[in-house]
Design goal:
The structure holds two protein chains of two kinds. By secondary structure, chain A is mostly beta strands. In chain A, about 0% of the residues lie in helices and about 50% in strands. The chains are: A mainly beta, B mainly beta. Chains A and B meet through strand 6 of A and strand 4, strand 5, strand 9 and strand 10 of B.
Amino acid sequence: DVKVTQSSRYLVKRTGEKVFLECVQDMDHENMFWYRQDPGLGLRLIYFSYDVKMKEKGDIPEGYSVSREKKERFSLILESASTNQTSMYLCASSLLGQGSGELFFGEGSRLTVL
Amino acid sequence: GENVEQHPSTLSVQEGDSAVIKCTYSDSASNYFPWYKQELGKRPQLIIDIRSNVGEKKDQRIAVTLNKTAKHFSLHITETQPEDSAVYFCAAGGNTGNQFYFGTGTSLTVIP
Protein backbone atom coordinates (compact mmCIF):
# COMPACT_ATOMS: atom_id res chain seq x y z
CA ASP A 1 0.00 0.00 0.00
CA VAL A 2 1.48 3.30 -1.11
CA LYS A 3 1.70 5.82 1.65
CA VAL A 4 2.12 9.55 1.11
CA THR A 5 2.41 11.40 4.38
CA GLN A 6 2.12 15.13 4.84
CA SER A 7 3.62 16.37 8.07
CA SER A 8 0.92 18.84 9.08
CA ARG A 9 -2.83 18.54 8.55
CA TYR A 10 -3.61 22.05 9.79
CA LEU A 11 -1.41 25.12 10.06
CA VAL A 12 -2.12 28.71 10.99
CA LYS A 13 0.55 31.25 10.09
CA ARG A 14 0.86 34.99 9.99
CA THR A 15 1.50 37.12 6.93
CA GLY A 16 5.20 37.25 6.15
CA GLU A 17 6.12 34.05 7.95
CA LYS A 18 8.14 31.34 6.23
CA VAL A 19 6.18 28.11 5.90
CA PHE A 20 7.47 24.60 5.26
CA LEU A 21 5.15 21.81 4.12
CA GLU A 22 6.76 18.40 4.18
CA CYS A 23 5.77 15.33 2.18
CA VAL A 24 7.22 11.82 2.38
CA GLN A 25 6.38 8.79 0.23
CA ASP A 26 7.41 5.25 0.99
CA MET A 27 7.14 3.57 -2.44
CA ASP A 28 10.35 4.69 -4.09
CA HIS A 29 8.44 6.78 -6.65
CA GLU A 30 10.49 8.98 -8.93
CA ASN A 31 7.83 11.62 -9.39
CA MET A 32 6.40 13.94 -6.76
CA PHE A 33 3.97 16.83 -7.04
CA TRP A 34 2.54 19.69 -5.02
CA TYR A 35 -1.01 20.80 -5.82
CA ARG A 36 -3.15 23.52 -4.42
CA GLN A 37 -6.90 22.84 -4.07
CA ASP A 38 -9.40 25.69 -3.94
CA PRO A 39 -13.20 25.47 -4.30
CA GLY A 40 -14.28 25.88 -7.90
CA LEU A 41 -10.70 25.85 -9.17
CA GLY A 42 -9.90 22.16 -8.86
CA LEU A 43 -6.34 20.98 -8.40
CA ARG A 44 -3.67 23.32 -9.66
CA LEU A 45 -0.05 22.22 -9.97
CA ILE A 46 2.51 24.33 -8.14
CA TYR A 47 5.73 22.37 -8.70
CA PHE A 48 6.75 18.87 -9.58
CA SER A 49 9.93 16.81 -9.49
CA TYR A 50 11.07 13.86 -11.57
CA ASP A 51 14.28 13.18 -9.69
CA VAL A 52 16.31 14.17 -6.68
CA LYS A 53 17.41 17.81 -6.80
CA MET A 54 15.30 18.31 -9.90
CA LYS A 55 12.24 20.57 -9.98
CA GLU A 56 9.96 22.02 -12.58
CA LYS A 57 7.38 24.78 -12.33
CA GLY A 58 3.74 23.96 -12.67
CA ASP A 59 0.94 26.35 -13.46
CA ILE A 60 1.08 28.53 -10.32
CA PRO A 61 4.66 28.60 -8.95
CA GLU A 62 4.73 32.27 -7.94
CA GLY A 63 5.32 32.71 -4.23
CA TYR A 64 6.45 29.10 -3.76
CA SER A 65 9.66 27.11 -3.94
CA VAL A 66 10.43 23.43 -3.45
CA SER A 67 13.21 21.20 -2.30
CA ARG A 68 13.94 17.57 -3.09
CA GLU A 69 17.15 16.53 -1.39
CA LYS A 70 16.10 12.89 -1.00
CA LYS A 71 14.01 10.73 -3.28
CA GLU A 72 11.30 10.12 -0.71
CA ARG A 73 10.88 13.71 0.47
CA PHE A 74 9.47 16.73 -1.35
CA SER A 75 9.06 19.99 0.51
CA LEU A 76 7.01 23.03 -0.40
CA ILE A 77 8.25 26.37 0.90
CA LEU A 78 6.37 29.64 1.17
CA GLU A 79 9.13 32.20 1.66
CA SER A 80 6.79 34.93 2.88
CA ALA A 81 3.23 33.73 3.39
CA SER A 82 0.38 35.90 2.20
CA THR A 83 -3.35 35.69 2.84
CA ASN A 84 -4.03 34.60 -0.75
CA GLN A 85 -2.01 31.46 -0.05
CA THR A 86 -4.66 30.27 2.40
CA SER A 87 -5.64 26.95 0.85
CA MET A 88 -5.52 23.17 0.95
CA TYR A 89 -2.17 21.80 -0.23
CA LEU A 90 -1.96 18.27 -1.58
CA CYS A 91 1.22 16.33 -2.17
CA ALA A 92 1.24 13.38 -4.58
CA SER A 93 3.64 10.83 -5.99
CA SER A 94 3.57 8.53 -8.98
CA LEU A 95 5.65 5.70 -10.32
CA LEU A 96 5.28 6.62 -13.96
CA GLY A 97 6.41 9.93 -15.39
CA GLN A 98 5.35 12.00 -18.38
CA GLY A 99 1.91 12.63 -16.90
CA SER A 100 0.92 9.00 -17.02
CA GLY A 101 -0.05 6.57 -14.30
CA GLU A 102 -1.79 6.77 -10.96
CA LEU A 103 -1.21 9.67 -8.60
CA PHE A 104 -1.14 8.79 -4.90
CA PHE A 105 -2.15 11.72 -2.75
CA GLY A 106 -1.43 12.64 0.82
CA GLU A 107 -4.19 13.66 3.23
CA GLY A 108 -3.58 17.33 2.58
CA SER A 109 -2.35 20.29 4.61
CA ARG A 110 -4.85 23.04 5.24
CA LEU A 111 -2.99 26.32 5.61
CA THR A 112 -4.55 29.48 6.96
CA VAL A 113 -2.57 32.71 6.67
CA LEU A 114 -3.78 35.52 8.91
CA GLY B 1 -0.50 24.14 -22.09
CA GLU B 2 -3.42 21.77 -21.69
CA ASN B 3 -6.84 23.08 -20.65
CA VAL B 4 -9.37 20.69 -19.12
CA GLU B 5 -12.98 21.78 -18.67
CA GLN B 6 -15.41 19.79 -16.55
CA HIS B 7 -19.22 19.93 -16.34
CA PRO B 8 -21.42 20.12 -14.42
CA SER B 9 -19.92 21.63 -11.29
CA THR B 10 -22.70 20.15 -9.14
CA LEU B 11 -24.97 17.19 -9.78
CA SER B 12 -27.78 15.72 -7.70
CA VAL B 13 -29.37 12.39 -8.56
CA GLN B 14 -31.80 10.03 -6.90
CA GLU B 15 -30.39 6.80 -5.57
CA GLY B 16 -30.46 4.18 -8.31
CA ASP B 17 -30.31 6.70 -11.15
CA SER B 18 -27.31 7.23 -13.41
CA ALA B 19 -24.85 10.12 -13.26
CA VAL B 20 -22.74 11.45 -16.10
CA ILE B 21 -19.83 13.90 -15.81
CA LYS B 22 -18.20 15.31 -18.91
CA CYS B 23 -14.75 16.73 -19.59
CA THR B 24 -13.09 18.28 -22.60
CA TYR B 25 -9.40 18.81 -23.24
CA SER B 26 -7.45 20.96 -25.65
CA ASP B 27 -4.06 19.28 -26.22
CA SER B 28 -4.34 16.55 -28.85
CA ALA B 29 -1.11 15.06 -27.46
CA SER B 30 -2.85 14.07 -24.21
CA ASN B 31 -3.17 10.30 -24.08
CA TYR B 32 -4.05 9.39 -20.49
CA PHE B 33 -7.33 10.31 -18.81
CA PRO B 34 -7.85 9.39 -15.14
CA TRP B 35 -10.80 10.08 -12.88
CA TYR B 36 -10.36 10.74 -9.16
CA LYS B 37 -12.94 10.61 -6.39
CA GLN B 38 -12.55 12.74 -3.29
CA GLU B 39 -14.86 12.04 -0.38
CA LEU B 40 -15.41 14.79 2.15
CA GLY B 41 -12.25 15.38 4.19
CA LYS B 42 -10.30 12.67 2.40
CA ARG B 43 -7.61 12.46 -0.24
CA PRO B 44 -8.43 12.08 -3.95
CA GLN B 45 -8.21 8.49 -5.11
CA LEU B 46 -8.10 7.05 -8.60
CA ILE B 47 -11.30 5.22 -9.53
CA ILE B 48 -10.81 4.56 -13.23
CA ASP B 49 -8.57 5.64 -16.08
CA ILE B 50 -8.44 5.27 -19.84
CA ARG B 51 -5.69 5.57 -22.39
CA SER B 52 -6.12 6.96 -25.85
CA ASN B 53 -5.88 3.61 -27.60
CA VAL B 54 -9.32 2.55 -26.30
CA GLY B 55 -12.72 4.16 -26.51
CA GLU B 56 -14.41 2.77 -23.42
CA LYS B 57 -13.52 1.08 -20.16
CA LYS B 58 -15.82 -0.36 -17.49
CA ASP B 59 -15.35 -1.38 -13.89
CA GLN B 60 -18.54 -2.62 -12.26
CA ARG B 61 -20.88 0.40 -11.96
CA ILE B 62 -18.48 2.95 -13.40
CA ALA B 63 -17.39 3.45 -16.98
CA VAL B 64 -15.38 6.00 -18.90
CA THR B 65 -15.74 6.82 -22.58
CA LEU B 66 -13.26 8.72 -24.72
CA ASN B 67 -13.80 10.50 -28.02
CA LYS B 68 -10.35 11.52 -29.28
CA THR B 69 -11.69 13.29 -32.34
CA ALA B 70 -13.92 15.56 -30.30
CA LYS B 71 -11.43 15.68 -27.41
CA HIS B 72 -13.89 14.79 -24.74
CA PHE B 73 -14.27 12.02 -22.19
CA SER B 74 -17.01 11.18 -19.74
CA LEU B 75 -17.56 9.31 -16.49
CA HIS B 76 -20.72 7.25 -16.17
CA ILE B 77 -21.94 5.91 -12.84
CA THR B 78 -24.92 3.57 -12.96
CA GLU B 79 -27.22 2.51 -10.10
CA THR B 80 -25.90 5.29 -7.91
CA GLN B 81 -25.63 4.75 -4.17
CA PRO B 82 -25.26 7.27 -1.31
CA GLU B 83 -21.58 6.30 -0.95
CA ASP B 84 -21.01 7.63 -4.47
CA SER B 85 -21.55 11.13 -3.07
CA ALA B 86 -18.19 12.91 -3.46
CA VAL B 87 -16.28 15.35 -5.62
CA TYR B 88 -15.06 13.84 -8.88
CA PHE B 89 -12.11 15.21 -10.84
CA CYS B 90 -11.16 14.41 -14.38
CA ALA B 91 -7.60 14.88 -15.60
CA ALA B 92 -5.55 14.71 -18.77
CA GLY B 93 -1.94 13.61 -18.94
CA GLY B 94 0.85 12.37 -21.18
CA ASN B 95 0.70 15.63 -23.09
CA THR B 96 3.27 18.15 -24.25
CA GLY B 97 3.52 19.51 -20.70
CA ASN B 98 4.46 16.08 -19.31
CA GLN B 99 2.16 16.60 -16.38
CA PHE B 100 -1.43 16.09 -15.27
CA TYR B 101 -4.03 18.78 -15.81
CA PHE B 102 -7.18 18.56 -13.69
CA GLY B 103 -10.72 19.72 -14.27
CA THR B 104 -12.43 21.92 -11.69
CA GLY B 105 -14.39 19.08 -10.13
CA THR B 106 -18.02 17.92 -9.92
CA SER B 107 -19.76 17.63 -6.58
CA LEU B 108 -22.10 14.65 -6.85
CA THR B 109 -24.87 14.16 -4.32
CA VAL B 110 -26.87 10.94 -4.35
CA ILE B 111 -30.21 11.44 -2.62
CA PRO B 112 -31.46 8.32 -0.76
